[in-house]
Amino acid sequence: MKKIKALITALLILTLLIMTTAYAAATGTTADRFEYSISGDKATITGYMGSEINLKIPAYIGGVPVISIGVSAFSRKTELVSITIPSGVTSIQYGAFAACTNLASISIPSSVSLIEAFAFSGCSSLTSVTIPWGVTTISEHSFVGCTSLTSVTIPSSVTSIQNRAFAGCDNLRKIIIPSSVTYIGYDYVFLYTPVTVYGSAGSYVQTYAQNNNIPFEVLGQIMRGDANDDKKIDIMDLVAIIDYIVSDIEPVSIINADANASGHVDIMDLVWIIDVIVGS
Questions:
Q1: According to the model, what pLDDT value does residue 162 have?
Q2: Range from 6-20, 56-70, 234-248, 256-270 carrying the lowest mean pLDDT
């Protein structure tokens, strides 16, 4: 009986040692200072201890594909200026890049289908973002407090925009929301954001905007360069854009003022309109 008990005890100890060893092997830090965890044949980036400011996240760790950016993995990494996420990553988890206050540029691959809450909250230097095709939900507080954000591209795979997703985006003056969106959160999605929503006539998006006193324009009415929305492109559109650049006086149609469709209104839109006027 004693021998059996001793054997069982030995087996339990051996099992515990194997489990502990396996767990230890599932986490680590790369030579480039990326922290990670591995489960099966999938890796998640869980943190970063390096000092690079223009960062490329690895696609593989020890031959294992990186499929996720973990919870708060890069949160408060204020030194980061740009980040490239590799193709193969499918999810950006809760608060992954929150409060990266100097992050001005991020490249999100088309493989990403999930962006969780607070993913880019407080990224106050981020100027533009393209949400990849395949994402169906813009989660709550995803871009809250992105005060430099001027351009957001939303694909028609998106069906819902959750609470306060774009709250406090001081410079987001226009956003095109596709008719695929059939739900927008009731809790101040655009709180403190001076945005005009563009969408299809008769869509859920139009109804939402009107019910919440958000300026709305029908997409079919866009005429690039017609900043004063008088259905023609002339010198008065140049005046409207100059007023906006110099004095921040918003033109009648901010989306038309973005004549070259760059995502923001600047001197290159003046050049575009001058070319049209001279060419005509």
A1: 97
A2: 6-20
Fold category of 222-280 in CATH: Type 1 dockerin domain (1.10.1330)
**123 Cβ contact partners less than 8 Å away, ≥ 6 residues apart:** 97, 98, 99, 100, 101, 103, 143, 145, 146
Q: Which of 127-136, 151-160, 243-252 has the lowest mean pLDDT?
A: 243-252
Torsion of CA 271, 272, 274, 275, to 10 degrees: 120
pLDDT at 20: 44
CB 215 within 8 A of CB 206: no
In contact, 140 and 185? CB cutoff 8 Å? yes
User: How far is residue 215's CA from residue 252's CA, in Å, rounded to a whole number?
Assistant: 11
Return all residues near 79 (Cβ < 8 A) that are at least 6 apart.
Answer: 51, 53, 102
Is the Cβ–Cβ distance between 68 and 88 less than 8 Å? Answer: no
91's enclosing H/E stretch is: strand 91-92
CB 87 within 8 A of CB 67: no
Question: How far is 115 from 95, CA to CA, in rounded Å?
Answer: 9
DSSP helix/strand/coil, 240? helix
